[in-house]
Amino acid sequence: MIFAANFKSNHSRASFKEYAGLLGDFWSEFDRKDDEIIIFPPFSAFCGCSLKGKKISLGAQNFYPADNGAFTGEICADMLSEFDINSVLVGHSERRALGEDDEFVRAKFEFAKAKLWRVVLCVGEDDIVHMNGSTCEFLESQLEGIDLAYEKLIIAYEPIWAIGTGKSAKPEIIAEILEFLSLKTKAPLLYGGSVNASNIARITQIPHCAGVLVGSASWQVQSFIELIKASKA
Q1: Lower CB density within 10 Å: C or N end of the chain?
Q2: What pTM was computed for the model?
């Protein structure tokens, strides 16, 4: 199982240092050989701790597809390399809502691929597409131009209508979409969208589900630990 945590704009350098220490201690004792944790903290927290040797890796929530340059306010590859960051989120719905269209998402993916970074590519539909029953067609358009055979690709299905609502998609819906995606790629498939300790065991038992991308349930370390524990309850 892959337990990916998206902190969004939460945690300072100091608070993440404390979080990482507690999570590292837990994982060292609880460690399951085939499981992995990926944490996507804010950029400012990268220098807050060291997680080397604990089977917990850090990733970037966002980046601009360039090594460096005149890109005011952006984080580029040279900056990420300083912290040994080689995992990135691409295509998250909150980035898309700020104007990152499919073309820009593809450009970011291609840049990350050229760097041999691990890419967690987020795809997902809004409530209108969902109610119209055209989710698969919509996801296919989001995947157009993406190298689905890239060996460091992970795909996270995050229905926008479930993110932050407290209501996860029903298992049968998740199963249908992960089945559809599994026919297109051998990449590990994650589910994201109101994942918590109460529903994670059901979610991780769904065929083709290789893990979860967690938002608010990961922001407090004890909540994230309880979620991990509950995944195989």
Answers
A1: C
A2: 0.95
